[in-house]
Predict the 3D structure of the following.
Amino acid sequence: MDLQAIYALLLSIIAGMATLIGAIIVIIIKKENKKFISASLGFASGIMISVSMLELFSKSNELITSSTNTFLGAVISTICLALGMFITFLINHFVQDENKAVNNLSKNKLLTAGIVSMLVIALHNFPEGIATFMSSYGNTALGVSITIAIAMHNIPEGITVALPIYLSTNSKKKAFLYTFLSGITEPLGALLAFLILRYFLTDLFLGAIFGIVGGIMIYIAVDDLIPTSRKYGYEGIALLFTLLGICIMPLTSIIK
């Protein structure tokens, strides 16, 4: 392994582990603050919607179109988006069945949201790690800028995972563990890119992954996070921070 590859892998680790900063933010703020809960869940849902539509679906359409044509690109990327939503529908039902021991319905929904959020952000970070490695491997300056941008994305994504897990389990350890698992897939994706995928990865395959992950994130936001954010008596705050989350994420692309 050459020094450039080590450098690229190190950058992917930094970007992926930025999710833990989000977990730290959740832990240091009192979980009993219902206003904070409403705002944070609303903010997390806005982040998911924004990332899904402005980045993941857009990138999916771009990559698939480059391998087919404009019409097929739009159709296939939309099908992948819908497939991601359907997959999440199935996962939601499975996870809820497995967590019947959680008697409180709101906590059940939060635990489900946290587990599924961990899975989907892990899936999101995996191709992101591939992209980080491939960009950093050949261009040091580009790799640094992309790492900073992705780290800024990953901090609020860490909140998305840690918050519902912490609220539903009252466990700092579990909040950190699930957040760590969602972030570690980024350097794993980078490692896989170095060992194998750089020889076989196609735009069509990567575009399909981005589309499916986008659909999963939208489903979580709409079905779990937004409804739960409005159950604490601060509907206006929840809505405001949902919209704020949607608006904040595009700003992180300025430094790319």
